[in-house]
Design goal:
The complex is a heterodimer of chains A (662) and B (493). Chain A is mainly α and 662 residues long. Chain A has 26 helices and 2 strands. Chain B is mostly helical and 493 residues long. Classes of the chains: A mainly alpha (662), B mainly alpha (493).
Chain lengths: 662, 493
């Protein structure tokens, strides 16, 4: 088993790497800047090695059983005692391994990608060490979240993850769209975090019940231990508060709007943070506190229905998007919906399994998009096509990722999606039958948009790349770029190949139906101390059938072009506009609520009230005062003296009064 | 010890004024004084023993024996951190004044006198002495705003003076009423003795005395609707004065509420707690609504102070818990918020001042793209802003979560509403950052220099405590705990 100090180093190594990059390398001489990439990779790779050791330890022992440490305390016995510690059990060990592993791979990819994006030509070479600093610090914060022992400790890292997400989305802060997207991400997730905070406060309200058991209401093992004693009412409110935070971070309806915009960040950032790891933090949070959620049927059904609805809703928006990264972003929202759906029907191990597989294949898809962008310098699929001719490795990687995402047998996505459908089919809650059909519908749509993406990007005739994009639609930084018909360098393709291996194999190898050599059957489920999910040939057949149907429809429309949707006329155009406008939710939030109701309504009225009424009354009182004492008001400095004299006189009067009284 | 702390800046002020030195030398003398003062406060803070509690470093001498007025100074867990805060901000205020060229000797003399007067307020344990220092602070403030200010500085200086003066009148009346309520021989201005007196039968209703103090402190903190002097004073004051005003002067209001209203009148405080909770929500939300309409950077930060001071009031309102539930977390959080807001908003004003020195505008729509030109100043703004919106690992988070934890069990709805202020804070801070710092670099800013070493030092002095106490708050919370304990006992908890 890992000693506790080594477990802290899982957080500490990337933290140290980040601090070196931002504190030592960046202000230092330009000559040292190339080192930043290697420092970042080294720190994260070290964390990955330790995480693998932790997984190995957890296989033998389960929970590592480190004791928390007292940090500070206020208010005495009935007050608030903050503890910190590392909670290393199978769940956090496997999550730490996924986070650090994917992060290390993405940082290797970034060695190639960011060198060009921050080249001297752009005058942005100083971006290079800054990028690796933020990436390393993000990784440290994410690992801190995963390993937190205390719910407030988890919240601290949760917010830090949000901070680095903000800094990375707005990495190119001179681009207005990036600055706006970063702000949007932070504020929308913070609305969810408001719920998280209320959940924390609500637990503190019930600290008496915890104290009776000798427990601290914020320590995660204590919450799980006390959950059955708390009663469904308490569990419902606490769980729903935490779920609000999870929905914000994991971009679930109605807080999903920030994620598609977050694609303004550098593509490897989208890959690591907004696909594989950070957005899964919400899923992790619910899995971490599953014992609490389990106590409340209402909370569980809410999680399942929000997840199921989001799976379909987001997939629909992915059907019509033309920006390759946005399609993948909608897909991420949709797949996260699947994970919540699984949690809501009582299958946290299944949700974690999908998180595990999704991390690989979605990261792979994003890196492929970045690789394509490296050649054509646009993300708009309408200007791509035929790219496979000069990017065979990228094409194969994207194909593997896409087939896995679409849930095609025997790639990894098939296995976990099948387990989710199986869990919903067999679920006994009120929501289970509803979400099963939602999940099946989403599977159809997923296959459609995946094949649309593959066909539009890699097949057919090349449609000109950035050179064909109208000048005014180009990102200013990239206006001078041209298409380079060549495959990306090895430092970028190698990470993709590695991820492709996982996207193919992580499904059946990690949770195989039968033992595979050294790997026992259902390793993943048993590792998390879960029962092995049932495999139903009927469910698997249904999911494969709908996926193939979706793929076939996409092939007919975008491959062979034997069908055209345009013949549906007005309803088709209306649907397209609805999807392109993302069901008008962004407009509702930003234009109607924020701009009109709040900024030009409530806030304007408050400001007016403050200027005219509150301050007006004060000024009016001052006016009467001035006209009452015009003589004193004529000399401003004189007033201070008069005032001083008045105080002295007052004091004298009191003194006399006092002496007379004696 | 405390006498040295209170009078070092005052003697320094006299020294700066008396020595007819060139401007550069004057600045260095002033810097030497505030650095010495900071060293003294750190030493005091290090020696102060939280486990021992009570009043320490007490010095007592008869002053006006006939009236029972004493020279009585001392610190407890409540005042010790605030004295440290004042020491920190003094250094930042002098550093950020490095470019002042107008009547330099007078300027630094007033600035040092201001710091000394505030030290006196926090160190006094005699009500008359407390009141004298409380009033003494007005004089340097008035001149600093009206001579070295900008815009409508005369109006703002006078407004500041009148508001505080009217508040002081209530306080003075309350002090006298309190004094004469006790039979001759038992009359005293000694706060350490007054805490133990039975306040149930005074010559005027106790609630009036309580209310007199409350109004004085509510003006200072400020509590809406008595806040409108603050945006004007901030907007027109020179940078260092804004730093001191937001950093420590407002804290005198919160300190007074805790020391006098909570310490001496626990029953009245518990009765007024629902009202305070309601006012706190108004402060937080109404303040934040107005922030979101501001286009002047200084007015924006000033209203954010109004909003954040609502958290102090909310924490104090947790006193309404009733003896069985009270645990002091909210009161400790309120005290902590005083300290953390002092460093955070002090830093915000430092950064705003640095931007104004360079760009000669505070109008946000005129800015944009500054981050590329001045990365250090932009980083300073982001740190201050993120701390202001309560990001964990900054001290702002610790104070806010303690206020929420302390008050939620008592006033759940009020706390939930006030906690939404955290979302609004994220809105106004990040929107401001987006408009002022980000976006394409502008031609007109291309010649602007980044922070000089002096400017960087002014920021660093404030950034260090923000992170140190944000990551490890125990050195601060343990001391405040010692200060809050008697209040909790007074409330019956």
């Amino acid at each position: 088993m890992l000693p506790e100090a080594a477990a802290w180093l899982i957080i500490g190594l990337p933290l140290l790497a980040g601090l070196i990059c931002i504190g030592a390398l960046r202000p230092w001489r330009r000559g040292l800047w190339p080192l930043a990439g290697y420092v970042g990779v080294a720190g994260t790779a070290g964390a990955f090695a330790l995480s693998l050791a932790a997984v190995n330890g957890a296989m033998g022992q389960g929970d590592a059983g480190y004791e928390p440490h007292r940090w500070f305390a206020v208010g005495g016995r009935d007050g608030f005692a903050m503890t910190v510690g590392v909670l290393l059990d199978p769940l956090s060990a496997i999550m730490a391994a996924v986070v650090s592993g994917v992060s290390a791979v993405v940082q290797v990819f970034s060695l190639g990608y960011m060198k060009k994006e921050s080249d001297a030509e752009n005058g942005a070479w100083s971006d290079y060490p800054r990028y690796f600093a933020y990436m390393s610090l993000f990784t440290a914060a994410m690992l801190g979240l995963v390993l937190a022992y205390n719910l407030i400790q988890l919240f601290v890292f949760w917010e830090l993850v949000g901070l680095f997400s903000y800094l990375l989305i707005g990495f190119w802060h001179h681009r207005p769209a990036a600055a706006a997207a970063a702000k949007k991400a932070f504020i929308v997730t913070r609305i969810g975090d408001f719920g998280f905070l209320l959940g924390i406060l609500y637990l503190f309200l019930h600290r008496g019940e915890f104290a009776a058991l000798g427990l601290n209401p914020f320590e995660i093992p204590a919450i799980l231990e006390a959950a059955p004693m708390l009663g469904a009412g308490v569990a419902t409110w606490a769980a729903l508060g935490l779920f609000a935070g999870a929905a914000g971070k994991s971009a679930q309806f109605p807080l999903h709007t920030w994620l598609p915009d977050a694609m303004e960040g550098p593509t490897p950032v989208s890959s690591l943070i907004h696909a594989a790891t950070m957005v899964a933090a919400g899923v992790f949070l619910v899995a971490r506190l599953f014992g609490l959620f389990e106590q409340s049927a209402a909370a569980m059904d809410t999680v399942a229905l929000i997840g199921g609805f989001t799976a379909v809703f987001a997939a629909a928006m992915g059907l019509a998007a033309n920006d390759i990264k946005r399609v993948l972003a909608f897909s991420t929202v949709s797949q996260l919906g699947y994970m919540f759906l699984a949690l809501g029907v009582g299958a946290p191990g299944v949700a974690m399994f999908h998180l595990f597989n999704h991390a690989f294949f979605k990261c792979l898809l994003f890196l492929s998009a970045g690789s394509v962008h490296h050649s054509v310098h646009t993300f708009d699929m309408r200007y791509m096509g035929g790219v496979r001719k000069w990017m065979p490795a990228t094409y194969l990687a994207a194909l593997v990722g896409g087939l896995s995402l679409a849930g095609i047998f025997p790639l990894s996505g098939f296995w976990s999606k099948d387990e989710i459908l199986g869990a919903a089919w067999g679920g006994e809650s009120a929501a289970a039958p509803v979400v099963f059909w939602l999940a099946l519908a989403a599977a159809f749509m997923t296959a459609f948009y995946v094949f649309r993406l593959i066909l539009m990007t890699f097949h057919g005739e090349f449609r000109g790349g950035v050179d064909a994009v109208p000048y005014e639609e180009r990102i200013p930084d990239e206006a001078h770029h041209h298409v380079h018909r060549r495959e990306s360098p090895l430092v970028m393709t190698l990470p993709m190949i590695l991820l492709a291996v996982f996207a193919i194999g992580s499904g059946f190898a990690a949770n195989s139906l039968v033992a595979l050599g050294p790997i026992p059957a259902h390793w993943f489920s048993h590792f998390l101390h879960e029962d092995a999910p049932d495999f139903s040939i009927g469910v698997a057949g249904a999911s494969t059938a709908v996926a193939l149907a979706g793929a076939a429809l996409a092939a007919l429309a975008y491959g062979t072009r034997t069908i055209s949707f345009d013949r549906f006329g007005a309803p088709w155009r209306f649907g397209g506009r609805l999807l392109a406008q993302r069901f008008y939710l962004d407009a509702l939030y930003e234009d109607l609520i924020v701009r009109r109701v709040l900024h030009r309504g409530l806030f304007l009225a408050s400001d007016w009230f403050d200027r005219r009424i509150v301050d007006g009354v004060a000024d009016l009182a001052g006016w009467f005062g001035r006209n009452g004492g015009r003589a004193a008001a004529q000399l401003q400095t004189g007033q201070v003296q008069v005032y001083g004299a008045a105080v002295s006189m007052g004091a004298a009067v009191i003194l006399i009064f006092y002496l007379l009284q004696r | 010890m405390l006498t040295a702390i209170a009078f070092t800046p005052i003697i320094g002020a006299a020294l700066v004024f008396a020595v007819r030195a060139p401007a550069r030398t004057t600045r260095l003398i002033a810097l030497a004084v505030v650095v010495a003062e900071l060293a003294l406060t750190i030493w005091m803070y290090a020696v102060f023993s939280a486990p021992q509690g009570g009043y320490q470093f007490v010095q007592r001498a008869d002053w006006v024996p006939a009236a029972g007025v004493q020279y009585l100074v001392g610190v407890d867990g409540l005042s010790a951190p605030l004295i440290l805060l004042n020491g920190i901000l003094g250094v930042a205020a002098v550093l950020v004044s490095w470019r002042v060229e107008l009547r330099v000797r007078e300027y630094f003399a007033w600035l040092l006198l201001l710091q000394g007067a505030v030290m006196g307020v926090f160190a006094s344990l005699d009500l008359i002495l407390f009141f004298i220092f409380w009033e003494l602070e007005l004089i340097p403030m008035f001149f600093l705003i009206s001579v070295w200010g900008t815009g409508r500085r005369d109006y703002s200086a006078m407004k500041f003076l009148l508001f505080t003066f009217i508040g002081s009148a209530f306080m003075f009346a309350a002090i006298l009423a309190l004094y004469f309520s006790f039979p001759a021989g038992e009359r005293t201005f000694d706060m350490t003795a007054l805490i133990w007196k039975d306040m149930s039968s005074l010559i005027v209703p106790t609630s009036l005395v309580f209310g007199g103090f409350l109004i004085a402190f509510a003006v200072k903190l400020p509590i809406a609707p008595l806040h409108t002097w603050l945006p004007d004073a901030h907007t027109d004051a020179p940078t260092a004065v804004s730093v001191m005003l937001a950093g420590v002067l407002l804290k005198m209001g919160g300190y007074g509420l805790l020391r006098i209203n909570a310490g001496m009148f626990p029953d009245q405080l518990a009765a007024a707690a629902p009202l305070l909770a309601a006012l706190a929500v108004v402060n937080v939300l109404y303040g934040a609504f107005i922030v979101l309409r501001q286009t002047d950077l200084k007015r924006l930060v000033a209203y954010s102070s109004v909003s954040h001071m609502g958290f102090v009031v909310l924490g104090i309102a947790s006193a309404g818990a009733g003896a069985a539930q009270l645990n002091g977390v909210g009161l400790n959080g309120a005290a902590l918020q005083l300290f953390t807001h002092g460093t955070i908003t002090g830093l915000l004003f430092v950064v705003v001042g640095l931007v104004y020195d360079r760009a000669h505008t505070r109008h946000i729509p005129d800015m944009g793209g500054l981050a590329g030109r001045m990365p250090l100043i932009a980083a300073g703004f982001m740190i201050a802003g993120l701390a202001s919106l309560g990001l964990p690992t900054t001290s702002g988070f610790v104070a806010e979560i303690m206020v929420f934890l302390g008050t939620f069990p008592v006033y759940g709805l009020a706390t939930a509403l006030a906690a939404f202020g955290v979302v609004l804070a994220a809105g106004y801070i990040l929107w401001t950052a987006q408009r002022a710092l980000f976006g394409p670099p502008r031609e007109r800013w291309s010649a602007l220099p980044d922070a000089s070493p002096i400017d960087a030092a002014a920021m660093a002095v404030l950034i260090v405590p923000i992170f140190v106490f944000g990551v490890y708050p125990a050195p601060l919370t343990d001391v405040f705990e010692a200060g809050v304990a008697p209040i909790v006992r007074g409330l019956g908890g």
